[in-house]
Amino acid sequence: MRQLLRRAWYLIRGRRLEADLAEEIEFHRALKQRELEESGLDAKAATFATRRALGSVALAKDRARDVWRPRWLQGLGQDLRLAVRTLWANKLVSAVAVLSLTLGIGANFAIFSLINSLLIRTLPVREPGRLVLVSDSGSLGTRTWNFAVWDQLRQRPHLFEGVVAWSSARFNLASGGEAQFVDGFWASGSFFDTLGVPAFLGRSLSDVDDRRGGGPDGPVVVISYSFWQRHFAGAANAIGHSLTLDNVPFTVVGVAPPEFFGADVGRTFDVVVPLGDEPLLHGRDTWLERRDVYWLNIMARLRLGESLDTATTGLRGVQPQIREATLPEGATGQYLDRYLKDSFVLVSAATGNSGMRRRYERALSVIMGVVVVVLLIACANIANLLLARAMARRPEFSLRLALGASRWRLVRQLLVESMVLAGLGAVFGLLIASWGSRFLMQQLSTQANTVFLDLGLDDHALGFMVGITVMTALLFSAAPAFRASGVPPMEALKENGRVTSAGGRFRLANSLVVAQVALSVVLIVAAGLFVRTFVSLATRNLGFDRDRVLMANVTVPRSTWTQTSACRYSSGSVRLFARCRESPRRRFLW
Amino acid sequence: MGTAEASDLLPGTLDLLILKTLAAGAMHGYGIVQRLQQVSDDVLQVGESSLYPALQRLLLKGWVKAEWGASENNRRARYYTLTAAGRKQLTVERQEFDRLILAIHKVLKTA
Predict the structure, then answer these.
(1) End-to-end CA distance of chain A, in Å?
(2) Where are the alpha helices (DSSP H) in chain B?
(3) What's the pTM?
(4) Touching check for A289 and chain B: CB below 8 Å?
(5) Containing H/E element for A352?
(6) Contact criterion met (CB < 8 Å) for B49 and A7
(7) Residue A67 with chain B: CB contacts under 8 Å
């Protein structure tokens, strides 16, 4: 490590230190010469004798330099400077190249960010590898359960290190007037502790909060970091504040860490409410009692070193009891048989739970393929441009070869130029991508369902970015580099060095053009189909005139829902409807 | 009696010799060469193209440090001194060297 620092120091102070070395060697030489002169040689003879005795100064300097930087690194700075100058001298070509790379790399990275956050990234919790989803072997592969099953599972703590249940929901923040919805989820008291997500501020939920009807602190809620910033402006005294959800007052007890978005990939949350508080909101119609409502996702954390199979075996051991205790009301015949027979399945859940995943996996991989083709076309394009330029630079190359540069050195020069181009493309591409992937994410969101994906850079994204940049650079520089290394050094000596072997260049360029056209045709057809589908979706005839039609939803807080209020509500709606009908210029559809 | 250029020596030996020479006190490049020659009765003659790369190597490893100072005849000269790490390295390399020589001796005696 210290050595690396010293090396870096040398790189920065290189010139100064080399001057030091030169002075030192000069000093050495002077002393040696004096010694020889004192022994009786005349000045001239002493100079020669010194040289003979001490060997080559240039060699000494070279070797000393080799100590500090490896051979292959030397001259890389020169190459880089030359590359920047050459690219700057051909502004138009460079600009076109950077632009196409920006679009190509940007599109790839935008789609990859979506794929990464939806399919690859693990949950931002402690040891996500040990998390499993409790699922079902039935034909539907159910992933949701009723409260009775959850109740049975949490009464058997020997099965797993911990088990949690949650269910997404929306809550109305407003206590009257226009509804103001926030995203959230019901969570079991064990949720934060089992996932290993500490509170950013205050405390997280505990099992006592999960008691039916609220714990000792009454109904409590944990809010997300972004909600804390939005709603409380990040104030520290937000803890202890009251928050009205569906007309029930809750106390804020904690703020979740910024990177935590819940266990559902594709969603985020504003509030987390203990499952036990559900009856407060849903009143007599509580889902805690209903066996026909499958609303809970159940996730478990395996014990350290325990395999998925042993955990599954353990779970299936108690399966009959659980099934027996949670029989759906009034189930008979075939349905009952199936309910008893379907066995529990554990699915690895390191990447979380997501309904979006199944929906978009195919589409995303298709689009990924398309953008890769776009990038390939860009590569072919740039390769062609560079090939033309390499042709014009033949005299330069052959002169360098004639002066003793190795072919590898010329190839390296071209590679460095390509890297600079690709690097610029990558930087701009990153900017485009961060905007583009956010835009795509917003397009996927609907009013009732906010899609959220954590699109931040992580190891995978950075690796992909670097990988694709290097691959691109290699791809489009291969042809020109191959050409350049084939220049005969003799060419520089001839006056019209350019005329030779031009045929080869055109052959290569022609095949590039053919590849480009072929890829473009595929792409145009694909893009055409995409647009066609989109247009037909957007203009589909719904069977009625969509012009000037509005949709209105009326939300009734379920906690106050009773027989009489239902009647009042419906008569109220009728009145509302009647009032609207009276207004002459609007027509309503009931 | 023949003389030995540094390149004829066993690898690593030059570093060891420089470290040992510097253990006596700060010295500039020329001084090191003179001293090696003197102590070895003119057997060891070190050329610039071996000495200065070796010194740079030792600098890089942090075993010696260099400072500019005035020489005997009032010219600017770079003086090398042993660091604590260098002193430790000297004993290590010395043991290594002794072991190597012993091994070579053994081979020469039996063969």
Answers:
(1) 75
(2) 13-22, 29-39, 48-61, 84-110
(3) 0.69
(4) no
(5) none
(6) no
(7) 53, 56-57, 60
